[in-house]
Amino acid sequence: MSALENAQAALARIAAHDGQVNAFTEVLAERALAQAARVDAARLTGPLVGMPFAAKNLFDLKGIPTRAGSKIRRNAPPATADATLVARLEAAGMVCVGALNMDEFAYGFTTENSHDGPAHNPHDLSRVAGGSSGGSAAAVAAGMVPVSLGTDTNGSIRVPASLCGVFGIKPSYGRLPRSGATLFVAAFDHVGPFARDVATLAAGYDALQGPDAADPAQVPMPVELVSPGMEAGLGDLRIGRLGGWFDGPQTPAARTAVAAVAKALGASGTAVWADAEATRAAAFLITSSEGAGFRLPELREHLEDFEPLIQDRLLAGALLPAAWIFHAQRVRAMGKASMAALLADWDILIAPATPTTATPIGQEMLTMQGVTMPLRPSLGLYTQPISAIGLPVLTVPLQNAAGVLPIGVQLIGRPWQEAALFRAARVLEQSGVCAAPVAAAFRV
Amino acid sequence: MLDPKNFDPGAYVAAVAPAVGLELSAERQLRVAEALALVVKLGAAALTRPVSESAEPAAMFRP
Fold first, then answer.
1. Which residues of B touch A (CB under 8 A)?
2. How far is CA A300 from the centre of its chain?
3. What is the ipTM of this complex?
4. How high is the pLDDT of residue B4?
């Protein structure tokens, strides 16, 4: 198919299905068809040429306001240029078809957005898609686009990838440039793609790499392509499970999924990271403070226009003592050091991505193993400590983990060793343990 | 770092909100105090964790 035919087909799928899923906040048909025509005329070659994609609506898309899930910014001046990652995918021959639903300012794990409506899980429309990149995962799971872009501060790629049953990569902190993306917590913000198969995820990730001076947090690493070595198998990779904190409250579906992945990858032991809980707590404090600090001017002037679910959390975060955050940053550094010592013995560690499969939209509390806790923050129990120290994670999906619902498992790597994660993910895909077909209700 | 027995979220919110330019109604202050109490609860494992003097406080770092 030509790029134009692909774009037209994607736009038709969106028109047919997004009324149920609510993944898109803006469909950019005119832009997509123009870009597709340019791609066809250029006669580009490559794995991504002509492939449609969409971006979480905190990425700048030239010509429309970058709303970042908010009401406050939907009448902001249109972006004057595309975000770096959007431009890179289009440079690789892809075609952007729209902007995607998310939790306001990326502060949430469920994409229950009061302004745009909730994103619905394509596997069960009564359930959440996860968040904050819920539209990104749902659009891919429903087959509306093969690739999407999201961000991950505390789990916002990994949680929706898990609940929607798709692949997602949160690279090492500083690997990919965030230029042109609205930040939530600069100390933790990562960007990355979603896809339904490992080869497409790898091609997308490879196209996104490269230096960008516009992001001061990007680390000057060389481009390290993962696609060429993706079929190398496990070789001598040392693979284990994360125990301790990561064996905490979770549903049987999460526990069974971790066991299945561990078995398929021949995990040879269990590692316990003693600082996991403290690091997660540090991440919670830093997120509360930084997330609110970014929004303080708008909180002063437009408080009632914020998402009701986060108003009081943001206000509380804006008031945290500086001494707490200074201390939390040092706890984070200690967590990073103790994990580095652990990773001297392991190349990949396996952990749950979410403690549960997708929960009903509107659910407030979650009870697991006799412990009842607030649902929304609890979805990040097992992702938050890892992003806090910047390790790369590839989330792999297992289908029908609880009825029709999928669940994901985190493959956690050493810093800058994303390639090892793609090798393992490809082994899991080839063995049939992991897969991300279009959700049953949306298959043609 | 944190003494939960002597920390009063309600009093703290009332005292500090004006310092960052937030004018909060009494009703709002109560809700924010509840949210702050949750932050304290979920952050306690960090706030009670001793750190060495050499522990790095930089907000951004190379992983």
1. 1-2, 12-13, 16-17, 20-22, 24, 28, 31-36, 38-39, 42-47, 49, 51-52, 55-63
2. 30
3. 0.95
4. 67
